[in-house]
Amino acid sequence: MPHTFDAEAVRTWCGLALEALGRAREGIDAINVYPVADGDTGTNLYLTVESAAHAVGAAFNGHAATGSASRPSLGDAIGAMAHGALIGAHGNSGTILAQMLRGMADVLAEQHEAGDAASEARDAGDVRHAGGAVLSRALLRAADSARNAVARPVEGTVLTVAASAAAAAARAAGVPPTGHGASAPRRSETGHGAATAQGARAGNGAAAGHGAERAAAYGAATASGDGVAPGVRGTSATRSPAAPVGAVARAAYEGACAALEATTGQLDVLARAGVVDAGGYGLVTVLGALAETLTGERTTAPTSPLRAAPGSHALGPGRPDADPRERRRPAAPPAPLPPAERSADADAPYDAATSERAPADGGHSGQPAGCDGEPITGPAYEVIYLLEADDTAVARLRGRLDALGDSLVIVGGDGLWNVHVHVDDAGAAVEAGIQAGRPYRLRITHFGAAAERRLNRETPPREPKRTDGARGTGHGARGERAARSVVLVVPGDGLAALCAEAGATVVTARPGEPPASGELVDAIRRAHAHEVVLLPNDAELRHTAAAAAAQMRTEGVRVALIPTRSVVQGIAALAVHEEDRGFDEDVVAMTSAAGATRYAELAVAERQSWTMAGVCQAGDVLGLIDGDVVVIGADLLATARTVLDRMLAAGGEMVTLVLGAGVPNSLAERLEAHVRERHLAVDTVNYRGEQPSAPLLIGIE
């Protein structure tokens, strides 16, 4: 089956990339030693792509509202992906990825405006899908845009990986690399890599020029007329035969993998730690998802992010069984968690008159160790904000922020920008934004505090002693944290009220709208507790919940994630929660209760489909046990009885029934009677969950 680069492919790409980053997040965090050893690159990329995926989903939903057959164009979908990444970008790596997506979107928008895609699109003048040449141009523009957004580019980083991917895509599209850019960037003759000492500290370096790989990609593309320079447009006489889009995507991925392998030798800080560049590894993961989308073939994962440090045999180069959580060197301390974020009103402008300026010395004494066991040097703060401003004001802002600090990346356009910089004076960086326009969604990260928290993570905060004998609810008084709280996701208002009454902080999931990690982060913050147990209650939320937990740990909250797959498992875990016992003991008990709970649900088929139990028709009642369809029936009561009998045949002491919206209470009464008659010594309890998606949820303990 041929694969095309269309709007549906963009949606699939987002889903696969998010899943792949979820799997790789911890390993990428572990190798994050450059530009700052703050251990958050994987988490930042996950959060950025998550925002992009939600934006693409919203674009599809918006078109569906106008008509069942309405679909966004390729340009609309990639534009939504780029905008979502822009407004949700986290960290240096996420900001650069957002600009790469914008570069791709710009190429597709130009194709639309010029009507130049007639040879590769199904509908001339309206880009519905694109071929290999268009994809190669989009990747070239992506690499070029990302490099131009970075104030001081450095080779051996994600920029090098992006340029190499674009060059490989251009070659696969029939454009051979030419000129002085055919060779890969080499380490400097001084032995200090591509960056000076200042550049290594800055993270975006002080190396001049745009790098050999970028020259290769740019030179090859412009020589063929298929490049990204303004006004350069190829003719049918100069273009090579159209290359399959899947082949171009695969070539880009393989080129990125090769460049990633070389990053260790391009930066001394990577060589000393024995790792590849974390941002580059993240980009390889995203490009692997694109290749899988457009070829239908799963890509071979790159070698382990960890390489052998000089003089160490702990991890051999490319060893496939290397655990990302292993230490790079026996003597090195554990890698720090991502940095803490100072919260600000998500949409309110920064008020310089009432804000606290960051102390000039970074606000901390001493130099906590980073990922590689060496003291963290350089600016003390990472400052990120969205900015509404015109191009002229942003140009002035670049100059001012470049003088204040380093790792400066400003991405965006059309009046909306994402600003990222590392500085010692965070207040001055924000004030510069105020002078340029309207900054909002401000995040300030203190690197030193993050490292100290990681180094001291074995010593959790003490639980405050209670003198009134009252149980905590997870909602401490303002200014005073509770000892412990439970945060869980539920699918209905009835369950939300039930769990809130039990003292939990609840996130209500709506049909087709799973909560983002930001919503889980907000819920953990609302819980206002030193320790939090997080119950996602959905297998699809495992990566989202893991990212939220990682982010909150950077803010000093001890978070334990129990990977519950159904809300009935979450109810079982909540039922045994006891704040008075130790945290680890409580988590073990809750995990045991959830794991001992088998789960089932009844759903109504929306269309004819193949299932493990046979072919179902629209309107059939489906009985699912542990996520698999095992019964197809015509009646809700009869199907529920069959499901209960099958589950209880393996034993059970307690049945939990959760009724959905519109389901009469009589259903629970009749099922309780059935259990009493057919299964001795089995208790039954029922709740009105009011979940709209499933008429009945069942748990067996």
Describe the structure.
The protein has 701 residues and is α+β, with helices and mostly antiparallel strands. The chain folds into four domains: 7-114 and 130-175 and 243-295, Alpha Horseshoe (Serine Threonine Protein Phosphatase 5, Tetratricopeptide repeat); 381-449, Alpha-Beta Plaits (2-Layer Sandwich), CATH 3.30.70; 484-596, 3-Layer(aba) Sandwich (Rossmann fold), CATH 3.40.50.510; 598-700, Hypothetical Protein Tm841, Chain: A,domain 3. Helices cover 43% and strands 15% of the residues. It is built from 21 helices and 19 strands. The strands form five sheets. Strands 16-15-12-19-17-18 form a six-stranded mixed beta sheet, sandwiched between helices. Strands 3-7-4-6-5 form a five-stranded antiparallel beta sheet, with helices on both faces. Strands 9-8-10-11 form a four-stranded parallel beta sheet, sandwiched between helices. α5 runs parallel beside α9 and α6 runs antiparallel to α9 (245-263). The model is unreliable at 116-127, 177-241, 307-375 and 453-477 (pLDDT under 50).
